[in-house]
Amino acid sequence: MKFLDLPPVSRINSFLDHVDVGDYVVYGDLEAYSCKLAGLDKKLSKSLDVEVQAGSSPLELSASPLGPLADSSSQLRANHFLKEDGLAKAEENIDSYLLEVSKVWSKTPGLCENPFLESLWTSIDEVICLRECDLYCYKSDLETDPFGEKASIWSFNYFFYNKKMKRILYFSCRAVSKKSLDEETTETSSKLYNYNSDSEADDDTAKYGMANTMDV
Question: Which DSSP state fits 19?
């Protein structure tokens, strides 16, 4: 796949890079990719398309850009990618998650005069043509969720696929709790301090032990 730098989504993507809504921070990605492949990549794409079409079946993806997903070392499985029945439910879900983000948008100077959610869906439609799309979402258990960190409050991952345009739009967002993130940072700093203190104590013990030996 080839990354497409398209102005309609680039502006939204830049805004979603880091949105502070108060108690938590939202990090988002809205990226478009071309699926116009040739040769080996085309064969791989067809193979993946057949397996992903199975939707919630337990079939494992046999190949991917990450390597054979049937390998026990990989955590991704085809049943983690579910095909949505339509766009309405996904739109409602996304809108509810990004309600606070839209408030920040309206208060940020220099952005579009239109409301955030209106600008978001207009941009997505312009890039991927929603009425012609199939929509997939990535769902997993806590162990395989790429956003399964302790500080994460919620996350979503959607793939809009337009077969006619041979294009994919990836839309992902996650909310990270400031409080939990601060606690993790403090805990990490504390562990690092204790480690350094223990290391210094061991060095001092070794140093003085050598000095005592030399005095003897």
Answer: E
Q: Give the residue carrying structure tokens 């988002």.
A: 28
Please report where in the chains the tokens 């085809």 appear, as a residue: 78
C-alpha to C-alpha distance for 78 and 133, rounded to whole angstroms: 19
* Rounded Cα–Cα distance for residues 121 and 100 (Å): 16
**What gap in Å lies between CA 211 and CA 53, rounded to an integer?**
72
- Distance CA(58)–CA(82), nearest Å, equals 11
Q: Which residue type is seen at 69?
A: L
Where are the extended beta strands (E) located within the chain?
A: 2-4, 19-20, 24-34, 81-83, 134-138, 152-162, 167-177
Supply the pTM of this predicted model.
0.69
In the chain, the percentage of residues whose pLDDT exceeds 70 is 58
Token pair 């990226």: residue: 31
